[in-house]
Amino acid sequence: MTELPHIKSLRGGTTAAIAAADLDLKTALAQETARRWFARTLSMRSPRDPVLPARPGRPERPELIPPRHMEKRSLHTLKGRIALLHALAHIELNAVDLALDIVARFTTERVPHSFFDGWMQVAFEEAKHFRLIRDRLRDLGADYGDLPAHDGLWQAAHDTRNDLTARLAVVPLILEARGLDVTPTLQAKMRETGDDASADILDIIYNDEKGHVAVGAKWFRFLCAREKKDPSATFRELVRTNFRGPLKPPFNDVARAEAGLTPSFYRSLVSVSQS
């Protein structure tokens, strides 16, 4: 059992988790900070909170390479399924840090405590997802760090570090929503190959991710309402300013709408981003 440092506050616990290079410690800190926050045994901030790092702590491996250099493999081979699970583990690890960062960075923001409840629930579940996928990789004779991974995900956090509304637009409403688009197909392919254990993990992740997008949509709309701005128009403006990649169909319109992300948000951005 990983021994946890003393958690003095919500900001302190989330910052310590972000900084942790030991991934067992990182996920344990994320979940224990969430438990204590939900139990209302933590203050929001403490004068002795550590400084938020510019980048999250990471082990020496995996090697980080540009996304275009990532090798694509067929899911019909064991190596291909391991490669996919490794990529998903890397996404979930970044998602842990992104959820923690939105809490640690914005504890001085004028939002209700329920804002932090939502994001600590997200951080707790992302830590669960990372552990589930890592355990599955180990079942298949591999581990996180065995393959290269790309370093594009943290850029979203860096680019929106000074603007909570932009952070909500880019991270949950683009990056997390993308998971709703692609996961059902990956689930089906895993089941075609007979890898039901991996597909079952993807089921858990898919259902949780709907809730994560919903948290993002709820608070994005809250901030827009407070500023008397139209949510769809504001989203499109922030994406054009803060997001570097294209928005690519197909979109899982049903799951997105269940999470509060209607087509008026993203449909008109496809032609703009691909032009």
UniProtKB/TrEMBL annotation:
It comes from the Bacteria. Signal peptide: none annotated. InterPro entries: DUF455, Ferritin-like_SF, UCP012318. This is Uncharacterized ferritin-like protein (DUF455 family).
